Queue: 4 jobs
Job 1
Amino acid sequence: MALLKQSCCVAGRFSTNHRWLSPRSTPLGYSSCLSTAARSSADREDMKKELQSQDGPGLQDFISGELSERSKWAEYRGNLKRQKGERLRLPPWLKTEIPIGKNYNRLKNTLRELNLHTVCEEARCPNIGECWGGGEHGTATATIMLMGDTCTRGCRFCSVKTARRPPPLDPDEPYNTAKAIAAWGLDYVVLTSVDRDDIADGGAEHFAKTVSSLKERNSHILVECLTPDFRGDLAAVEKIALSGLDVYAHNVETVRELQRYVRDPRANFDQSLSVLKHAKKVKPSVLTKTSIMLGLGESDQQITSTMAELREAGVDCLTLGQYMQPTKRHLKVEEYIPPEKFAHWEKVGADMGFVYTASGPLVRSSYKAGEFFLKNLLKKRKEEISAAEGDVS
């Protein structure tokens, strides 16, 4: 499973699967996120005070979607699009504090006792408290990273450790993971992993064993698997799709035109699309899900075309969020997308027919996963009951 991190400045995501946590990035709220070597100490102090101000939107603003009233905080004077040699200033809508769930320490101690590595997938995600045993929204969720913390790929947006041959898998991990999750009494869990191209099936059997072990312990828990692309091995995809999971997620990361620029050469848009298509083919009832980072230099037309391709492939759920640079060695943020533009893409997704579209500056790939899935299940159940009652009458 993964490494537990409390840092809040998220950027590059975990290669092709678990997303947007930068283990070595600098926390938001510190001037070092934005300052340059040439900036004077006085300027840095002013910037620090600005970042620590409480005029920005709160968590509830992001949850409710009430982000259009820009007058609620100081007008942003920086550029949104990066000029040559420039490093963009962080806009006010990306300044937020991390709420920690009341069960955070209890879950952390359980993991240590079982010798497991675990992560809230996106430490800067608005629902991190919910991910760690929250209940504010009526659900309790967690994101677990399987197969260690070292990836065999090197995407340009991601700062996860890489190696050609990471440590071998822990054969007890599926059992220990299921045991820990069952003890937490969660409603929803997201299982994700690094890429393991060094393993014949990419770790698909490891994923499947974890899901089946978990379902055996608690058949009511909802399980989402956010998987690698397994080098396009559809047999591996099928193994996980038929393991008993409820949501099959795999992230395309960016628009088609930027794939080679952003992702490891071993990943590509068509390969990722084939993963999502095949999961749906072998298990039509499963929800498929993917995520796109914005702010890497993509155009509006490229975003629209990518969303259309995903929908044509039968993808049910889509999340769109702001890319954040993890370290100076990684891709720079080309543009900070304002909240109003994210709201536009959410509407576009709804109009295209996605079952669920989450789009916002702080949205991450497992954003409010348990809440939206449970809500949709309840809605569907009510509709079926109403329809049945109508037939009887």
Note: The chain has one domain: 97-391.
Job 2
Amino acid sequence: MEVTARTAITLLLAAVVALSFLSDAGVQGVRGYRHHHHARHTRHNSARPPSSSHAPGPASPRRAPSPAHHGSSPPAPPARAPSGPSPMPGAPAPAPGDGEAADNVYDVIKDFGAAGDGVTDDTDAIKTAWDTACQDAGEGVVVAAAGHSFLVRSTVFTGPCQGSVTLQIDGTIVAPSEPTEWPANSKRNWLVFYKADGVSLRGAGLIDGKGQKWWDLPCKPHKGGNTHGPCDSPVALRFFMSNNVTVQGLKVQNSPEFHFRFDSCRGVHVHGLSISSPALSPNTDGIHVENTQDVLIANTVVSNGDDCVSIGAGTLNVHIENVTCGPGHGISIGSLGKQGTRACVSNITVRNAVIRHSDNGVRIKTWQGGSGSVSGVTFENVRMDAVRNPIIIDQYYCLSKSCENATTAVFVNGVTYSGIRGTYDVRGPPIHFGCSDAVPCTNITLSGVELLPATGDTVDSPFCWNVYGNATTPTVPPVACLMDGVPRNVDDSSSLKCY
């Protein structure tokens, strides 16, 4: 009996151990199935998006990762103690690093069948990848991998999205090269981001607008034609009604028209771009901002056939820093007030810029007959290199010979030029203030201005017309044509102001 009891106890213990092992294995099997099922949904759940040292992630705060649709995610690890200095306010946030993987990574080749050969139309693959990422909560990254070229036709990337979406371009995106290949109703935009709040466009890749045949159309201005009707040409990248936008690290070239246009956006960070097109390419502004506020453009190089950066009506709070321009038409506010429209621009700062071999340096241009105001503008520490018009306010802007003077104008008030130095092309005066007869320019301030001719020894005199202000330090050339005080007809300027 004693032996039998011991045997029974031994067998019972062995059964318990075996049952425990089988139970653990079963749990692990279920867990493994759940993970595999989730991986099929996200495709590359644990992968880090490709990145370069100069292409960190978006500036806007990232959302906390949300559970995926299939199964629950494991609990988030405890937050790590911060290390190193805090980022400068307004600086873009770093890209996801080890232990900070994005929720979902969508490879347009591996997951959506893009060919990536530069010949096959990959529009549907990239658009479907965007739509899929947009519908998932959390952070999604759509990857166009290095070593591939993707032909993409006119496309709208539409939001709002459930989470934030990053379009990571490490390869090349190319447009159709023939204007005849574009739909008749889609000749004004190429890649459009509409209501895409929190979108980030970044990478070490190239976006090529293939603009040459658009520029060669016989109706283009430099071909003796006009810019109406069949001469509508696509903007390469347009962000419309999208907030908290980041564009970083890319090379963009040869847009048929503007390279970037931000319209009706709020919170835009542009950083580390290279934008280029030939010097004679028509209307190829590098970055155009309109009806948009809270904009940072930094550490960017633009070489093109029109304005380096252009600021249109309805723009508020723009900071441009460490930008190199040229050749081109410089940094421009305007043109404003065309056909009697009201234009409001305020709080614009351009700092630590270089402008080379351009038609203009820093310019404000308005049409006769408009209304509204340009106010609170600062140009500081701008280096000019053989620029035709380094400092210019032109309130008689006109593209034909039929423009007439008018009794109204956009009010230009409170413009500071500080530390504007370098050389100018002697075809025009280094400083040109041509202000409206009806609404003079006021509170124009100069300090530390030193502009010398690029060739020859003669220093040209500035041109002033109906402009009020002062030079707080001696300038080269001397600006003796500014008038003191405030003109009588703008003593009460409240009706002229916008903000």
Note: The mean pLDDT is 82.
Job 3
Amino acid sequence: MSETHTAPALPAPGAGQKARKVRGGGRGGSNWWAHIVLSIGGFIMVFPFLWQIVMSLSSTAEVTSVPPALWPEELRFENYVEVFRQVPFMSQFWVSVQVTVLTVLGQIVLCSLAGYAFARMRFVASATIFAVMLSILMIPNQAYLIPQYQIVQNLGWLDTVQGIVIPTIFSAFGTFLMRQFFVSMPAELEEAARLDGANSFQIFWRVMLPLAKPSISALAIITTLAAWNNLLWPLVVTSRAEDRPLSVGIASLNGQYVIDYPVMMAASLMAMAPILILFIVMQRRVIEGLAHSGLKG
């Protein structure tokens, strides 16, 4: 007696993929949710900047009203003109540029040299000296504010650019950042350069420093932000408005009894614009520099 065998039914083409999409929501669905969450997070981060722009174009009554006006009835671009009337904006802008450029150049040179020495050279108590230098990061700047002021005063550098720059021209963090990069470099590079007759400085200048561009870029951006926004030290060592950087000039717009918020927001936007442009241009280098140096060693 013959038996009849029935072939098992094959699933329809694409049925498994449809089932997986139903169970897991599908890759497209998860991407949509990711875009929605990221868009909400991005808007939350950008909202203070957008609100600052709105405030700079509003009147004081609109800004201080409860609830505040989400959009001004009339765009007041004269708030930006008022900034130049209340503070010597261009003089303070030039002081900020000088302070920032000199501080960045000084830290790149000194921190690169110190970082290379700690990473590649062996000298007496190098580890101890490096540990003591890093301990500076644990001390707040206010602790040595008075001794620094006395030194600058004795040198006759009050109300000068060098009085603002010299105490901030070196940083323990910058030295640590550069040291971490130089430590990660292969020793064969130095050995090959020494076989070619190069001395220690030539190895540093011609071999190591060109390879350290990502870390130098990161150090430059971090130092630029710190120098441009530095408020306490320039406020202490300067007394005349034209000798002060923009950070101090904007803070002076904060009156004792009345605060002109639209003018202050306009001045903040004008001071923020150069740094914002610089960060957008150098953003990739900053990420590369921190990835190569800050996460190793």
Note: The chain has two domains: 35-75, 88-294.
Job 4
Amino acid sequence: MFVYFFLTGLVFTSILTESSATVRYQPEQIHLSFGEKERSIVITWSTGNKTDSIVKYGGGGQLLQTKAGSCSLFVDGGSKKASQYIHRVTLYYEEPDSLQPETKYYYHVGSDRGWSAIYWFMTPPENLNEWAPSIAIYGDMGNVNAQSLPRLQAETQAGNYDAIIHVGDFAYNMDDYDGEVGDEFMRQIETIAAYVPYMTTVGNHESAYNFSHYRARFSMPGPYENMMYSFNMGPIHFISFSTEYYYYLRYGFKMLVKQYEWLENDLKMANHPANRTIRPWIITLGHRPMYCSNKDDDDCTRIKNRLRYGITPLRLFALEDLFYKYSVDLEIWAHEHSYERLWPIYDYKVYNGSYDEPYTNPRAPVHIVVGSAGCQERVDSFNPLPSWSGFRSSDYGYSRVKVHNATHLNLQQVSDDLDGQVIDDWWLVKEMPRIKFPLADKLEEATKDTSQNHIRETVEINE
């Protein structure tokens, strides 16, 4: 009798274990991103247990095409060492049964152990040079108080956007409760990220375990695990980089050096006449701002902040000079839980195009801060208005960027507090051919100083 109950117990335990494991094969946290090649789409999702990585997709609601990918194990750094498998499948345009331009594709992901719901995405037009994409951009959105999310869900599923860009600080925080907060956040944004590419920039709230959750959960192009990369959309060249390398030096000075060199090389290539003609707009994406007028003690309130001024006292790897020298048009930041639009600015001096049209042929980059999507830390207030700040708001909300052509860019700030009202609507206009900013040539001569090169060489020698 004892043997009977013992064997029955083993079978019952086995059934429960298998049942529990089967439930964890169900795909979740589905999101899209742009891949290594300009027209490629990466589909990423998660399962609790290892299984096949398959996407079934097709036009007209018929899921007749199949593409397999790969998965990798991710283990959280917390005490439970919670694990999950991150799946990735890339769809290309040049393969047999490839994606067709300007087509609505339906898809679902999973394996024979479980499939997701059916989602869809639109492919870009055949002539990418004439593509005029619409993009939603924001930062600092958490699980709690994600106030902008319902409106973004409705607008994304209505087909209003070609991509979404999240400029740092996710979930608050993805590593909390052994990664459960990160899982919930990824499920939350699935309602937008499964329909359009969800491009990301790392923020300070991703720092745990050397940014492991951010590096593992997303699938941005390039070899640097999402920390720095660039991509193109129509006439725009986007550059995403880590401001956190300037602040988390305990993770190694080497990556700060590598990123600066990568940024300069990417900007040089983007500024090659052939490339700048095709993609005249250069937009940078970084989490912590160089400038802000918020009522706090954040680094952007200081004149000699690390991003703008460099690592003092030698002013190493200063980004304001670099971005000015290579004629960056627009610099988008977050971190401050507010919206702020600056006048064209360099070294705390305003360089408007003209008094009546400050953003027509401006003589310096334009900065905006878009960190008010909504999180449990609420919104930030401001100090008295400085002369270099053009507009600011503490309303919850997000920005829209509409690229009309090679010369005209429209930007709007949406207030969720005011039921979707556009509270800032302005145009950035750059006539062709592009003209260098006035001090760029002098700056290039000044930056030929050997001190920064010496630091680079020292780091390389010590590797």
Note: The mean pLDDT is 91.
